[in-house]
Amino acid sequence: MLPASAPVSHPNLKVGASSPQMREPSAPQNNCLAHPAINGEASSRHVVNFKRRRAAFAEVVGEGLAIVPTAREHNLYPYRPDSYFRYLTGFSEPEAVLVIAAGRSILFCREKDAEREAWTGFRYGPAAAREVFGFDEALPIDELKQKLPELIRDHPALWFAPGMDSEWDISILAALKSARDTRHAGKGAPARLYDWRDTLDVMRMVKDDAEIALMRKAAEITAAGHLRAMRTCRPGMMEYELEAEISHEFRRLGAGGHAYSPIVAGGANACVLHYTQNDCPLDASDLVLIDAGCEYDGYAADITRTFPVNGRFTAIAKDCYEIVLAAQQAAIAATAPNVPLNKPHEAAVRILAQGMLDLGLLTGEIDGVIESQAYRRFYMHNTGHWLGLDVHDVGLWKQTDAEGRESWPVLLPGMVMTVEPGLYIAASPELPDALASGIGIRIEDDVLVTNTGAEVYTHAPRSVTEIEEIMRTHSPDIPA
Ligand SMILES: [Mn+2]
Predict the structure, then answer these.
(1) pTM of the entire structure?
(2) Which CATH code is given to the segment(s) 40-203?
(3) Taking the domains of the chain in order of start, what are their residue ranges?
(4) How far is the CA of 444 from the centre of ligand 1 (A)?
(5) How far is the CA of 2 from the centre of ligand 1 (A)?
(6) Higher pLDDT, 178 or 334
(7) List of E strands, 350-450
């Protein structure tokens, strides 16, 4: 999945300044937390992580009260819990709200209902949910709206996410009004309102060990999907056939599905950055770009590979590919703790811009091409984005201090990002002959910032040699 073209500015948040240290010795592989038949020991170790995250959040909320609702159900899409709610609870049923009240965590959720469960499946009900997920208290969701003014009352501050869900905005503001209306009777009402997203974004940017274990699993399944695409690709196949191979591998290995709409783009389609139609035939003389990642227990992986449909890179395709690969290696080498986020991107841009000069796509000298941003004709997106529960995970890309000076967040151990340089040469008669028909390449891997550097934890064939070897081994048609 591609990062946006320009960094998003965001005021005054010091990334990492209040990141709680959340370390768990080892994370369970258990993926059945939201199922009654869970392994007791594994699940309790898992719940420890959610309790720890809630405790860290509760510490920031202090004597205040925070309201964190999950996502609403939507007829047209499979249900996916809100990522903030999931991060704090592990609870994946719809119609649920976490309330943190002066350090206590209270879940509001659906009640047991045998008749409804016969139609839509198991639901915990408050008693079991409290037990399994470790809340201090759990109550029926139907009681929340009525209880809200009473809950809010006497807390000095109210934390919610204004604008995220207009129905909750209305309910929460109504409860706030109701609490204020009774102040004359000696009751208190929150005097301060906070948006919890800044706090939780900073927490979510630094992954704990349980999260990293899930992300490694997502990466393993995603890499298997890409490997299968390389093995099964044949000239004349349709792009959607490769998509189907990947989807099959994701589900076969236990992923929930795709973390985003997969891109399978043959030839010049790869120059359309958000190409997702995936309905063209794959020509033997073309490369195919596949950007696909699975979601595993809520966490995303994000890998892009570009390989020759017939299994052998042409000379010009190899030249272009090696430039993108070198750019990726430079960006990965620049990824380390205490490094500003723009450094990996700048490292990639320098290699790509030099490559554009070498290929005859641009004229001039390297510093001028970077200064003028002439390279953006062929490389128009950023080199990475945060990765986690969301494929474009929360967290700042750029920050602005009180004086309006922009700076980049500094990388910290536990942060996870993609490194995905590309080269997109759209067909044009004015380009050198070998490139005039268009070629698009992106290579994307997922990188964990460690204490000493960075670890690429996505392992799919990446070098020209590895890719050609895999494809030769699995296709009877490709000569040695
Ligand atoms: Mn991506």
Answers:
(1) 0.90
(2) 3.40.350.10
(3) 40-203, 206-474
(4) 7
(5) 4
(6) 334
(7) 399-400, 406-407, 416-419, 422-425, 439-442, 445-449
